[in-house]
Amino acid sequence: MKGEIMLKFSRYAGIDMGNKTIKIVQLEKYKNKIRIKNILSIPNRSQNPFYSKEALSENLNAVFDLIKDHLRKQKITIGIPNDRVLYKKIELPKMRPGELKQAILWEKRELLAQLEGEYVVDYEVIETHANSYEILMAASLKGEVMEYVNIAEKFGLALEAIDIYPLSIARVFKSSFAEHNLVVVDIGASRTEITLFDCGKVDFTYSVPIGGNAMTKLIAKFLSLDEFDAESIKINPGNYQSEVKECLAPLIHHLTLQIIRCIKHFQQRKGEEVKTAVFTGGGGKLLGLRDYFFNETRIEVLLADEIDFPYIEIDPILKSAFDKMEFSCALGYALRGAF
What is the pTM of this model? Predict the structure, then answer.
């Protein structure tokens, strides 16, 4: 219309393929402003979506069919589950761009030679020092990667990138913890991701096969309930607080030991303390977990929903629905395109 200035927005979407639900965050970017415009949470139709090509294909087809109309004309980043990726962190001396590319090529060949099966390898320079580069390499089965690409194309969606978990979660939290070391504990339905950060940079990540589903099963068995009712009590214990704490105590203890082992590994290598732990994911809200971890470690504990994201605006109609604990990973994937 004459006299109007048309604002050109870039639109991005991040998809977090969880074993229980698929989370989607949609962003708009105008100049340097980023706003969350929409969020979606869709039940995962497959009981075991990531351990066979057939199940993965079935699940991706179902998901993309549901969301295709929401994601037209958006640049989409989707994440591969962390336990389906192999990582290697390397350090290379400072060199010219062409030489660096060639050096990384040799590192990729060396990594592929150590793996059985057909893999694809990608990398990101996570830190540039005066005399060296820190590089995170990631390898995933080629067949699984191509399944994401082919099914997205089938539904006419613009797949901008296939991303990895530690870089996603780094985009969300690194600006808030750029000056000290951090552990992020992301408790999902079937596993917990433990990621250590060295002043905002990914140091290493570790996947533990413990998650919210295991907690629900324990509550169901302890209280002689079906899993639907047990899930409700896990989320809102009400009058069952003491019973929930009692039945989950061994699992919380085991999970805490796994986190402590990762922290000690970081401290032994770096000679530095971890100052803060951030709990995220649906399981991060578990009754008693925060207090138990603090009592065992004396490390400051924050929940993701207590952290401000100063560079991100949230559409006013979404503020009450946007749960940082649930959507932090999908947000990180969406931010890959926006940054």
Answer: 0.91
